[in-house]
Amino acid sequence: MDGTAAFLGPEGDRAGRLPGATRGDAALAVVGRSDCGRSSLVRAGIGTLCVMSPVNLETLRLFLHVLAATVWVGGQITLAALVPALRAAGTDVPKAAAHAFNRVAWPAFGILVLTGIWNVVAEGDKGPAYQHTLMVKYTLVVGSGVTAYLHARVASRKAMAVLGALTGLTALATLFVGIMLAE
Ligand code: HEM
Questions:
Q1: Last residue of a domain, one of 22, 39, 55
Q2: Looking at the structure, do residues 61 and 137 belong to the same domain, yes or no?
Q3: Which ligand 1 atom sits nearest the alpha carbon of residue 69?
Q4: Which ligand 1 atom is nearest residue 117's CA?
Q5: DSSP secondary-structure letter at 54?
Q6: Do 171 and 103 have their domain in common?
Q7: Which of 5, 89, 109, 116 could form a disulfide with 15 if both were Cys (CB 3.0 to 4.6 A apart)?
Q8: 98 and 16, same structural domain?
Q9: Are residues 20 and 74 in the same domain?
Q10: Atom of ligand 1 nearest to the CA of 66
Q11: Distance between Cα 119 and ligand 1 center (Å)
């Protein structure tokens, strides 16, 4: 039935009848590809339904943005949770783990900025509320990046603790505001 319509609904069988079928025999049939992109379609008496969401550039854009967010934000939470165990394994171990994490975290941050710019261009101007939310997000992104950078460089334990907390909070807040933008 590839690409051939087989809709036999109450309106009749304009789209092509299956051999042996009569009016009203089938109200639902897979009819192939068209306005759903690569996905198959099911056409029912009430309209056309895409069986699968289409895969397109928007899918890739959001996939990369969210993938990088999982590394940047999720990685920080995971590392923080591992610190007591790492400390127990040796005083230098948390530092080594943080170095290793930074090797994936900063490329992820770069991907967030690049795909974020791509998001802004692709989504366009969605009104003042969206723009204000975006401004809040820019501030949080800068805060998240700057505090993470400083956190890795300060010497005092107190400054490290404060900046670590700020990094975690701003990263979480950026994630939250990102979801607000996507709604
Ligand atoms: C720490 C950095 C960032 C994090 C954790 C983050 C996280 C997220 C998340 C989770 C989403 C929701 C995606 C979805 O479900 O559709 C999102 C959307 C978005 N982000 Fe980011 N993001 C970051 C950086 C940026 C930057 C730097 C920009 C702009 C330059 C940006 C612009 C956007 C826009 C415009 C959307 C809405 C996309 C849409 O409506 O389809 N993001 N962000």
A1: 55
A2: yes
A3: 5
A4: 30
A5: P
A6: yes
A7: 5
A8: no
A9: no
A10: 10
A11: 7
Q: What is the pLDDT of residues 95-133, one digit of tens each?
A: 999 999 999 999 999 999 999 999 999 999 999 999 999
Q: Is 181 exposed, middle or buried (0-12, 13-18, 19+ CB in 10 A)?
A: middle
109 shares its domain with 177: yes
pTM of the predicted structure, to 2 decimals: 0.79
Same domain, 36 and 68: no
Do the strands 41-44 and 47-50 form a parallel or antiparallel pair, or are they unpaired?
A: antiparallel
- For 24, the token pair is 């009203």
Q: Using a 6 Å CB cutoff, which residues line ligand 1?
A: 62, 65-66, 69, 72-73, 112-113, 116-117, 119-120, 123, 137, 141, 144, 171, 174-175, 178-179, 181-182
Domain containing 47 equals 1-55
Q: Does residue 55 have a pLDDT over 80?
A: yes
Q: What is the mean pLDDT of residues 163-169?
A: 96
Q: How many domains does the chain have?
A: 2
Residue 43 sits at φ, ψ, to 5 deg, of: -105, 120
72: exposed, middle or buried (Cβ count in 10 Å: 0-12, 13-18, 19+): buried
Is residue 152 domain-shared with residue 84, that is, in the same domain?
Answer: yes
The residue type found at 133 is T
